[in-house]
């Protein structure tokens, strides 16, 4: 059992929780909680860490039997956990590697893509990823200025969808949007200058939505690449919606139109 915060594994866990650069260098991220750990495919599990208290729970002994895990004292586990009231289990997980080209050219489904520009709130991004799975999104493209999708707060907000939604960081968002257009995917921007309400457009063919920063919205450079601006009608004096809420409206409108045929 590990009971010192000077242990190299403990130090590494703390770095993985806090540093995006370290997660990227090692090609891994951390998940916390029994449900998401049990959802992780065996091939992607690097190692599991459990608290001393968790090790005494009979219910999960069968699950842990064939896996590589390390026991941490309760106090050390509390130190490396990101949650306020940890469940006593976390795991280091290998990232899935996707490319923009694979997301764009996958012909098994009609393209339903989100492009996120510089979103900063982990809860927003996690909620978008979770909703994207539910609404049948085929891929998400994010720029480097978007919050790290492997941030612990993002991971928790996805509720496991991080494993199932293809997500890729774009080195050049403008170029990748142009790739979408060359593949015949129509690109929409949620924008206050939109002439049509979002539900007046047809999303039955390949579709991509660009969603901008929570405070600043879309940059002019990226917004200008859209084929069409769409607006979300609002009552009262509200000027904009939360990015996750706006994304959800667009994603579900697309899903509903396609279900209706």
Q: How would you concisely characterize the structure shown here?
A:
By secondary structure, the protein is an alpha/beta fold.
For the largest sheet, list the strands in their spatial order: 7-6-5-10-8-11-9
User: Architecture of the largest domain, according to CATH?
Assistant: 3-Layer(aba) Sandwich
pLDDT < 50 runs, ≥5 residues: none
Query: Fraction of residues in helices?
Result: 25-40%
**Average pLDDT for all residues:** 95
CATH class of the largest domain: Alpha Beta
- Overall geometric form: elongated
Strand segment tally: 11
Helix count, DSSP H or I runs of 4 or more residues:
12
- Compute the number of structural domains: 2
How would you characterize this protein structure?
The protein is α/β, with parallel strands linked by helices and 261 residues long. The chain has two domains: 8-94, Ribosomal protein L30/S12 (60s Ribosomal Protein L30, Chain: A, 2-Layer Sandwich), CATH 3.30.1330; 100-260, SPOUT methyltransferase, trefoil knot domain (Alpha/beta knot). 37% of the residues lie in helices and 20% in strands. It contains twelve helices and eleven strands. The strands form two sheets. The chain has a seven-stranded parallel β-sheet, sandwiched between helices. Strands 1-4-2-3 form a four-stranded mixed β-sheet. β5 (112-116), α8 and β6 form a beta-alpha-beta unit. α8 (122-134) packs parallel to α12. The protein is elongated. The termini are far apart. The relative contact order is 0.13. The model has no long low-confidence stretch (mean pLDDT 95).
């Amino acid at each position: 059992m590990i009971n010192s915060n000077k242990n190299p594994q403990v130090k590494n866990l703390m770095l993985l929780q806090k540093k995006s650069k370290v997660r990227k260098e090692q090609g891994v991220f951390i998940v916390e909680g029994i449900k998401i750990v049990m959802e992780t495919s065996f091939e992607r599990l690097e190692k599991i860490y459990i608290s001393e208290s968790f090790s005494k729970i009979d219910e999960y002994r069968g699950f842990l039997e064939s896996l590589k895990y390390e026991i941490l004292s309760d106090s050390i586990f509390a130190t490396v956990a990101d949650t306020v009231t940890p469940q006593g289990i976390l795991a280091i997980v290998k990232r899935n590697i996707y490319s923009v080209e694979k997301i764009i050219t996958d012909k098994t489904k009609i393209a339903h893509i989100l492009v996120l520009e510089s979103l900063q709130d982990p809860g927003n991004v996690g909620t978008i990823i979770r909703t994207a799975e539910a609404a049948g999104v085929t891929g998400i493209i994010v720029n480097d200025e978007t919050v790290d999708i492997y941030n612990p707060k993002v991971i928790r907000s996805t509720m496991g969808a991080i494993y199932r939604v293809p997500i890729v960081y774009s080195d050049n968002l403008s170029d990748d949007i142009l790739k979408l257009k060359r593949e015949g995917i129509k690109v929409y921007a949620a924008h206050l200058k939109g002439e049509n309400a979002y539900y007046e457009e047809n999303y039955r063919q390949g579709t991509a939505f660009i969603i901008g920063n929570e405070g600043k919205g879309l940059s002019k450079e990226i917004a200008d690449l859209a084929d069409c601006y769409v607006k979300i009608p609002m009552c009262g004096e509200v000027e904009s919606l939360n990015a996750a809420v706006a994304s959800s409206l667009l994603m579900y409108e697309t899903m509903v139109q396609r279900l209706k045929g």
